[in-house]
Every structure is written in C-alpha cells, then in structure tokens.
Amino acid sequence: MRTAYTLGGAATWLDYLEPALRTRGWRVTVGLVEGPTFHRPERYLAQHPHQDWVRIPCLTPTEEGRRQALRQVMAALTPDVVVSMNVADAVAVIAAERAMGHKTPRIVISAQMIDEGLLHDIAAFAPVLDAVVCTNALTRQLAIQLSGMPPERVWYGPYGVPMPADVPPATPSARLSICYVGRLDEPDKRVYDIPRILAMLDTYAVPFQCTIIGTGPDEAALRQRMAPWIANGTARFLGRLAPADIWPQVDPGHGVLLLTSWTDTGPFVVFEAMAWQLAVVSSRYYGSGLERALRHEDTAMLYPIGDATAAAHCLRQLWTNGALHQRLITQGARLVRERYALAHSIAAWDGILRGILEAPPRQVVQARVPLSTDLACCASQSTDPNVGVHSGEGSGENDEWPLTLARVAPDNPQFWAYVAELDTPSVAQQA
To answer: What is the pLDDT of residue 365?
Structure first.
C-alpha cells in the first residue's frame, strides 16, 4: 500500500477490510511502502491504524531497490496471496520470480481507479496475474475488454459502508442544506464547479447553506472563488473531519450531497451520504453508468459533467419538490442496504480471495516486459523513454513508488472516448 496520501477510498476500504478478514480466518499483513520523502508509514498509520503491518523500505528510489525490498518482505512472510494496491512493482517481482521457475504467492491487482496506465499494466501482466478485483462495474469491463484478462479472473468487489444505528430526525429548514465531502482537487474532483453552481442557485433564488468538508491541493483557490458566499455566511469550510463527525454536520434526513467528479469507482462518499439519509445530486461521472446505482430521479439527481446550470436545476427541484427529495432519500438508503452495506463488501472479498486460491494457478509464462502493448481502443503507449508519462507522474511520491509501470500519453482522448462509450449500459450489454 502506498503511504504518501492518507485520503481517499483505498485507505478507507483497507481500514474496514483488514480487521474483518481476520475475523473470517485470514492472516492479514498490511505492507506499507516507505520512501525518502513522501511515503512515510508512521504518518499514514496515524490516520489509518492497522494491527499487523510491515514496512517495505526503499530509501534510494530505484527500480532495483524497490523490488529487492518487496522480495525480502515476501520471502519473510510467505503469503498465499499478494494483493497489490497501486504498488506496480509488486506484480513485476512475482512475474520475474515465476519466469525463473520459483514458487510464488498468487498475485492480485486491486483496481480502484479508471486509469489508462493501470490497464496497460494489467494487459502486460495478464499471463501472470491470478486475478484483478474491481470496485466498479466499468473498471471490470475495461479490464476484460482492453487487457485480455479472462473474464472469470476479473472479479467485482464493491465498496461497503456502515449503516448508522440512528439517524437524527429531519428538522424543517429555511434553506437547502448542501454539502461537498472529499478531496479539494481540480480537475479530478472538479471542485471549481461548486462556485459556478452556487452562482446559478442565486440566480434561481434558492436559499442555501453550503458546507465544504475536506482538504486538498486546491483548497486555497476554491476558498478564493467562494469568497462572496463565505462573506455572507451561506458557505463554510470545516476542513478534514473524522468520519463519525461528518454527517451530523450536514442535516441527515434533510440535506443534499453534491458530487462534481468527472470519474470515480465508488465513491464511498455517495454511499455514506445515502446511509445517512441525504439526497444525492451528482455528475454523470465516468463509472456511474454501468454500475447502475445512481438512477435519475430515483436514487439520485444526475447532470452532465461540468454543467453548472443543470446541477443547479437539480438542486432547485429538490428545494421545490419535497416528495422528490424524500423519494431520493428513501431509495438511496434502500440501495445501500441491498448492495453497498459493509457486510456485502466484506463477504464479497472473503469469497473472492477463497475463489482465487481454489482456482488453478496461472502457468509460468513470460509477461510482456518491458511494457510495449497498445490497448484495443487506442495506441497511446510509447516505447520512447522521452515520450509519455507514468500514470500519476509529476509528483514526487510517484518517483519513489510508481503508481503504474506503463508510460502513457496524458489525457489520451481516444481512451476517454472509449471509457465514455463503454459506460453506457446499452453499449456494454452488446459487448
């Protein structure tokens, strides 16, 4: 597990899964990578404590240093299964060991993002990988359609959230209570859409209170853009809060969660909001189509990515139509109970891991390394070391422990056009 970043769904997922699997008979050890500057296990553990963990140190960030550290840890622990969560070198180590005829653990990629570089890695290591586990239906289809993985080895393991024991009763309000919860990041989360949406609500004369919970690299710029509403008291920033402290702040049973992302594979925050009986207004982000969880005017109000006018119109409908607002709250809570409750996710992962061990091991086959494959949808891979970037490159944490090994053209329009098409349910049904 990479330790440079303590926010996000992957860390939350591991927080609940590790102790839960232990109660089901698994011996779980969390491997936390360490680098000279960005990847610091103790800093990560301060936010996400784990019972059994091991340090994977590479203080001179080189490929050989990283892989030697991984080999040493695997040799000491002798695991049955290694689940790689954004530690690309872990797959490469096991591929190399198998190519030399050595006995290895089963190797699994946990795919929790829609990323071209990750799909290139899956394609390159498809002959070696025992499984890929995806938290989202679109991610699973991408892994099958583009990487060449056998469908029976690409699993679906959704996120899960706890259902609160008691939600405070809704109280009447003179304003629409809107909240944004998550990383303050542009463009991934498109947080600069928020002030544009608030401006449209002013145009529509919808009274509101907007609460921003979270931190991120673009917080200062977002505060500047929201200065007029901060000044008149209709917007506030609460910073990062402990999970238990978030939802009582935003009118459970009455408020609205606003999601502005352009791509996601959950997200946790939507299911948490639904569990706490908030209505959801969301962009039609890449990842929301095939999952079939967010249905317009049933479990959520949906608007085109980046369309502030349409988003404000959705919010206005909830303000003026109490029956619609209540239907979204009721149906959203039902959705979580039936598909995204914590118990469903834990049971899914327990079954998946047991299924991986029961399946025949992959044959010893040389993986396509160095990575030189093109995905079926596009030819964005480059063998020229001066062209393209590693996924996530440009920040120091990816120099220490790369997110992926593939080099891809950034923001490849062919790839994202394919993603958009595949995320349309009718298209996927024909594939």
So the answer is: 59
Residue ranges covered by each domain of the chain: 9-160+346-422, 176-340
Q: Which of the listed CATH numbers 2.40.400.10, 3.40.50.2000, 3.90.1150.200, 3.10.20.30 matches domain 176-340?
A: 3.40.50.2000
Evaluate whether 406 touches 391 at the Cβ level (below 8 Å).
yes
Q: How confident is the model at residue 388 (pLDDT cuts 50, 70, 90)?
A: very low
Calculate the average pLDDT of the chain. Answer: 90
Identical fold, 9-160+346-422 and 176-340:
yes
- How is residue 426 written in tokens? 């009718």
Beta-carbon neighbour count of residue 199 at 10 Å? 15
Q: Which H, E and C letters describe 130-181, residue by residue?
A: CEEEECCHHHHHHHHHHHCCCHHHEEECCCCECCCCCCCCCCCCCCEEEEEE
Q: Cα separation of 81 and 342, whole Å?
A: 23
Split at pLDDT 50, 70, 90, the class of 7 is confident
Confidence band for 372, pLDDT divided at 50, 70 and 90: very low
pLDDT tens-digit profile of 336-369?
A: 999 999 999 999 999 999 999 999 988 765 555 4
pTM, to two decimals:
0.91
Q: How confident is the model at residue 387 (pLDDT cuts 50, 70, 90)?
A: very low
Nearest to 257 by CA among 204, 307, 224, 294: 294
Taking alpha carbons only, the member of 177, 122, 157 closest to residue 404 is 122
Superfamily of domain 9-160+346-422: Glycogen Phosphorylase B; (3.40.50.2000)
Confidence of residue 396 (pLDDT cuts 50, 70, 90): low
